[in-house]
Amino acid sequence: MNQVSVAHSRAPQILSLLQEYGPLSVKGLETLMRPRIAKRRLQECLLRLYEKGLVIRRFEASPFSRQYYELSQADEMRKEVHKLTGIPPERLLQPYFRSQELLHSEECAFWAHYLKEVFPEAEVVRDFRMKTHNDICNALLVMSDEAFVFPDIVIYFCEKENSDPLAIPV
Q1: Could you give the CA distance from residue 100 to residue 79 in angstroms, rounded to a whole number?
Q2: Residues 135, 113 within the same domain
Q3: Which of 14, 63, 78, 154 has the fewest beta carbons under 10 Å from its own?
Q4: Strand partners for 153
Q5: Same domain for 60 and 134?
Q6: How many contiguous H segments (helices) and E segments (strands) does the chain have?
């Protein structure tokens, strides 16, 4: 049986997904959200978040022509997102995603989500979040303050009793 939730109760989940994966389209959010939400309800929730200034809209002109949503980077709005999600305001900071990268970024979000499901014991980290993960930077032999091109995704298995840590760049 499909579980359905009221749209306004999904705002924290939507904001958390945008924090974790970066800009996402309605289709992208629809794909990642559990339990599923009706497209119309998702659009209503996104409109409310947009009207409150918590998210911004971006349009990517490509053959797919999708509208993307991302977290507002305004200080006041990050404080509001923190109140709704509990995510510290400094973790809500995100880099600027160029328009031509939006589709690629969303594809990476799908893969990262899938890899988290396949490897629940691993930490799956997107490129724009890697500088905050010292263990991953060390495994990749990169200083976190260097200007470096990171892989799109890293699957990181922490050190265990019988094994060394393992980082798999994707």
Answers
A1: 29
A2: no
A3: 63
A4: 126
A5: no
A6: 6, 6
pLDDT tens by residue, the chain, 170 residues: 344 444 458 999 999 999 999 999 999 999 999 999 999 999 999 999 999 999 999 987 666 678 999 999 999 999 999 999 999 999 999 999 888 889 899 999 999 999 999 999 999 999 988 888 888 888 887 765 565 678 999 999 988 888 888 999 99
Residue 51: how many other CB atoms lie within 10 Å: 9
The strand pair at 66-71 and 55-60 is best described as: antiparallel
- Residues 90 and 63: their CA atoms lie apart, in Å, by 35
Tokens of 76: 């006041």
Please indicate, yes or no, whether residues 151 and 94 belong to a single structural domain of this protein.
Answer: no
Tell me the residue range of the domain where 138 lies. 121-170
Q: In angstroms, how far apart are the furthest CA atoms of the chain? A: 52
pTM of the predicted model over 0.90: no
Q: Out of 75, 102, 118, pick the residue that ends a domain.
A: 118
Q: Rounded distance, CA 129 to CA 110, Å?
A: 16
CATH number, residue 16: 1.10.10.10
Tokens of 84: 């709704």
